[in-house]
Amino acid sequence: MSSLRRFTPGSAVAPVPRPAAIPTAELDRRRDEAAARFAEAHWDLGGLAYEMAVRDHFRLDVLQRKAAEVQELDAELSHLERLTRLEEAGAAGACPNCSTPYGRGAGFCSSCGTKLVETVVAP
Q1: Under a CB-based contact definition with an 8 Å cutoff, are residues 54 and 46 in contact?
Q2: Which of 10, 83, 97, 121 has the largest CB neighbor count within 10 A?
């Protein structure tokens, strides 16, 4: 059974809990560090491929491992950049279904219609 309850008169509407806010300076620092790690890993992947080409000996398993590392760092960087944009836009959060930013007081996502509030019966 769902933890969401049907709205009835006299019940309070509580927003879906958001992750704890990260201070802007901390978010910027983490984003900059992630960008530096991504750039270095990307550079290393290119150097690795070059060295293998020069020696005419490719190790696909090594290249795939390094590419997977670059992909993980790229995903982390994208997440931090999205959080930064949300912070700059003054949004209340992002839709858990489609990641569209929503403003304070929004009950439903303007893009996909996902319910953003939880109905709680007042004691």
Answers
A1: no
A2: 83
Tell me whether strands 93-94 and 101-102 are parallel, antiparallel or unpaired: antiparallel
Each residue of 68-83: pLDDT tens digit? 999 999 999 998 888 8
Closest alpha carbon to 117 in 91, 89, 96: 96
Domain of 51, in residue numbers:
21-90
Q: Which amino acid is at 52?
A: M
Domain count, the chain: 2
Judgement on whether residues 37 and 80 belong to the same structural domain of the protein: yes
Question: pTM (2 decimals)?
Answer: 0.58
Q: Where are the beta strands (DSSP E) in 59-100?
A: 93-94
Residues 47 and 80 in one domain: yes
